[in-house]
C-alpha cells in the first residue's frame, strides 16, 4: 500500500512550477488515497473526471509558461456547504436541493489561483454540530480509529487533509467548526476575523457567527490559502515574529482539560518561554456567559433560515439537527437582543485580554476525538455533553469575531492529536498567521500519521 | 412591565411543542430554559455594572461624548 502524499503546499508548489511534479499526478495520488480509505467517508461528491481534466489543462499552462502561483495545480477539498458549479450543495442533508448554478466567491478565488477542486467533503448536517456523525451520507470517521469522530462540522475536510486526500481544504466555522476537527485530526484550521472572507455561495447557519476559512497541513499552507481567499497575491514572505507576549486565559478556559490537552498546553507554554517569549496569565471577563450568548444567537438565526424546510420537509433532517433547529423557534426576540448586547461586552472583554499581548494561547479542544455517537464525555471525572465540551473553547471567538487558528501540538498521552489555539486581534489575521508560524515548530507537532 | 419568567416561558414552549406533535423537544427546551436563565442573569449583572448596560432609546449624548 503506497503512503499518502502528505507534503505541504509550500513544498510541492516549487516542484509543480518546475515541472518536476505534474498536477495530474497530484490529483491521481489524492484520488487513489480516497479509494484506499473509504471507511473514513470524507467525501460526499467526488469530482474525479473534472479534477483530472482541469489538472491536464493547468499542466499545459505551466508548460506554456503561465504559472499562477503556489496553488497552481493543487488539489483542494471543499466542505459541502459551499457552492461548486455543477454539483449539489447537499449540506450533508436529505433536504432536496438544486445543482449549484455558479461557484461560491471563495471557489472562484481558488480557481483563479489555479487550485483544483477534487470533491465536496462530508460534514455535520447543515454545519449544526461538532461531530460530523449526523449526516445523510453517514458519519465521517477518524482516520486513526473508525469508531471515533473526526470532529465537526468540517469533519470531512479535516479528515481528508489528515489522510492525504487533498493538499488544502475549505471549511466553515460558526462555533468552532474549522478549529474543532482540525484539533481532533491533527491539522491546521484558521477562522479569520468575522466578515473577512466572503460567505457568498455558502449555506448559512448563523449570519452573525458564520466564518469561512482555510484548512491545511501547515500554517504556511493556511496562509497561502488565506491570501488567495482575500483576493491578493499569495505567498508573500511572512515576517518573523519578534519576542512575543502570549496570554493564556485561565479559569473557564483551563479548569476542565483532559490530561493530553493540558500537557499540550503546558508543553507549548514551556517551549515559548524557552525560546525567549513571554507567557502570562490573562483573564477574559464574562467568559462564563459564552454558552448562553452563543445559543441565543445561533438558534434563532439558524431557525429563521430553515423555517420553510422545517414546515415542508421536516422528515428530511437528521432527528437531532431538526430538534435543535426547532428549539430556535422558541427563542424570544428580547432574548436574542440580550445576547447581541452581551456579544458587545464579550468583544470588549477579549480585546482587553489581548491588551499587552500579541495573541492568546489556549487549547483548541479539552479532550481528544470522542467516540462516534457518544452523547457525553468524561473529563477529569466529570461528565459533560459532547457538543458543549467541543464548543467550550472555540465559540467565544465566533461571538467576538477575533481571528483564531488551531494547530497541532505535542503530548505523549496517547496516539490521538491534540490542538492548541492562538487568538489574535480583530482585523489582524495576517499578524496572527505570522505568530502561528513562529509557534508551530515550538509546539512540536507529530509527523503526519493518519494515512 | 413584568418580565416573562423563565419557567412560564418553558411551560408555554413545551405545551406548544406537544401541540405540534414534538414531545421529544421537551428535554431540549428544558436545557434551553437553563441557558435562558443564565443569559438573563448575565444581562442583569452587566446592566448593574457602573457605566455599563445599553443606553435606552433617545438618550442624549453626555457632555463627555459631545466634547
What this model shows, in words?
Chain A is an alpha/beta fold and 451 residues long. Chain A has a single domain, classed as Amidase signature (AS) enzymes, CATH 3.90.1300. Chain A is 37% helix and 15% strand. Chain A has 14 helices and 13 strands. Chain A has helices at 9-18, 23-36, 48-63, 105-112, 155-162, 179-185, 219-229, 259-274, 290-312, 319-328, 333-354, 386-391, 396-400, 429-439; strands at 43-46, 75-79, 116-121, 168-173, 188-191, 211-216, 245-249, 278-282, 359-363, 376-379, 382-385, 404-409, 418-423. In chain A, the strands form 2 sheets. Chain A has an 11-stranded mixed sheet, with helices on both faces. In chain A, helix 2 (23-36) runs antiparallel to helix 3 and helix 7 (219-229) packs antiparallel against helix 14 (429-439). The model of chain A has no long low-confidence stretch (mean pLDDT 95). Chain B has 67 residues and is mainly α. Chain B is built from 3 helices and no strands. Mean pLDDT of chain B is 80; it is low at 55-67.
Write the layout of secondary structure elements.
The complex is a heterodimer of chains A (451) and B (67).
Chain A: H1 9-18, H2 23-36, E1 43-46, H3 48-63, E2 75-79, H4 105-112, E3 116-121, H5 155-162, E4 168-173, H6 179-185, E5 188-191, E6 211-216, H7 219-229, E7 245-249, H8 259-274, E8 278-282, H9 290-312, H10 319-328, H11 333-354, E9 359-363, E10 376-379, E11 382-385, H12 386-391, H13 396-400, E12 404-409, E13 418-423, H14 429-439
Parallel strand pairs in A: 2-3, 2-4, 7-8, 7-9
Antiparallel strand pairs in A: 1-3, 4-6, 5-6, 5-12, 9-13, 10-11, 12-13
Helix pairs in contact in A: 2-3, 5-6, 7-14, 9-10, 9-11
Chain B: H1 6-19, H2 26-48, H3 63-66
Helix pairs in contact in B: 1-2
Amino acid at each position: 500500500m503506497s503512503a499518502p502524499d502528505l507534503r505541504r503546499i509550500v513544498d510541492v508548489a516549487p516542484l509543480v512550477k518546475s515541472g518536476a511534479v505534474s498536477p495530474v499526478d497530484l490529483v491521481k495520488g489524492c484520488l487513489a488515497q480516497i479509494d484506499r480509505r473509504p471507511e473514513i467517508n470524507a467525501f460526499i461528491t467526488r469530482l474525479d473526471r473534472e479534477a483530472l481534466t482541469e489538472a491536464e489543462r493547468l499542466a499545459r499552462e505551466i508548460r506554456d509558461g503561465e504559472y499562477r502561483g503556489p496553488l497552481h495545480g493543487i488539489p483542494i477539498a471543499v466542505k459541502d456547504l459551499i457552492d461548486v458549479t455543477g454539483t449539489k450543495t447537499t449540506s450533508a442533508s436529505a433536504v432536496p436541493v438544486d445543482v449549484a448554478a455558479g461557484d461560491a466567491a471563495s471557489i472562484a478565488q481558488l480557481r483563479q489561483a489555479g487550485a483544483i477542486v477534487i470533491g465536496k467533503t462530508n460534514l455535520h448536517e447543515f454545519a449544526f454540530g461538532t461531530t460530523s456523525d449526523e449526516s445523510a451520507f453517514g458519519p465521517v470517521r477518524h482516520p486513526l480509529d473508525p469508531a471515533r469522530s473526526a470532529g465537526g462540522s468540517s469533519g470531512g475536510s479535516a479528515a481528508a487533509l489528515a489522510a492525504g486526500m487533498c493538499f488544502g481544504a475549505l471549511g466553515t466555522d460558526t462555533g468552532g467548526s474549522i478549529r474543532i476537527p482540525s484539533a481532533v485530526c491533527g491539522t491546521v484550521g484558521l477562522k479569520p476575523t468575522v466578515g473577512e472572507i466572503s460567505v457568498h455561495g455558502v449555506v448559512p447557519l448563523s449570519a452573525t457567527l458564520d466564518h469561512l476559512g482555510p484548512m491545511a497541513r501547515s500554517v504556511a499552507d493556511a496562509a497561502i490559502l488565506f491570501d488567495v481567499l482575500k483576493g491578493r497575491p499569495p505567498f508573500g514572505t511572512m515576517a518573523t515574529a519578534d519576542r512575543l507576549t502570549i496570554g493564556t486565559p485561565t479559569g473557564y478556559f483551563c479548569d476542565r482539560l483532559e490530561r493530553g490537552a493540558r500537557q499540550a498546553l503546558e508543553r507549548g507554554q514551556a517551549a515559548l518561554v524557552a525560546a525567549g517569549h513571554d507567557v502570562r496569565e490573562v483573564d477574559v471577563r464574562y467568559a462564563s456567559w459564552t454558552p448562553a450568548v452563543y445559543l441565543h444567537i445561533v438558534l434563532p438565526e439558524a431557525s429563521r433560515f430553515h423555517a420553510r424546510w422545517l414546515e415542508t420537509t421536516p422528515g428530511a433532517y437528521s432527528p437531532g439537527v431538526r430538534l435543535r433547529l426547532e428549539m430556535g423557534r422558541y427563542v424570544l426576540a428580547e432574548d436574542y437582543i440580550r445576547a447581541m448586547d452581551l456579544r458587545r461586552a464579550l468583544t470588549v472583554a477579549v480585546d482587553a485580554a489581548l491588551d499587552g499581548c500579541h495573541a492568546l494561547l489556549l487549547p483548541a479542544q479539552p479532550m481528544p476525538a470522542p467516540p462516534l455517537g457518544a452523547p457525553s464525555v468524561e473529563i477529569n471525572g466529570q461528565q459533560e455533553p459532547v457538543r458543549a465540551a467541543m464548543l467550550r473553547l472555540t465559540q467565544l471567538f465566533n461571538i467576538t469575531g477575533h481571528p483564531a487558528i488551531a494547530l497541532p501540538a505535542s503530548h505523549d498521552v496517547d496516539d490521538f492529536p491534540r490542538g492548541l489555539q492562538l487568538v489574535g486581534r480583530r482585523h489582524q489575521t495576517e499578524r496572527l498567521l505570522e505568530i502561528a508560524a513562529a509557534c508551530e515548530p515550538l509546539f512540536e507537532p507529530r509527523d503526519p500519521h493518519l494515512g | 412591565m413584568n418580565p416573562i419568567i423563565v419557567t412560564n416561558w418553558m411551560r408555554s414552549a413545551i405545551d406548544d411543542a406537544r401541540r405540534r406533535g414534538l414531545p421529544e423537544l421537551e428535554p431540549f427546551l428544558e436545557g434551553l430554559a437553563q441557558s435562558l436563565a443564565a443569559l438573563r442573569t448575565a444581562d442583569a449583572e452587566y446592566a448593574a455594572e457602573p457605566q455599563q448596560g445599553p443606553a435606552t432609546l433617545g438618550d442624549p449624548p453626555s457632555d463627555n461624548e459631545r466634547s
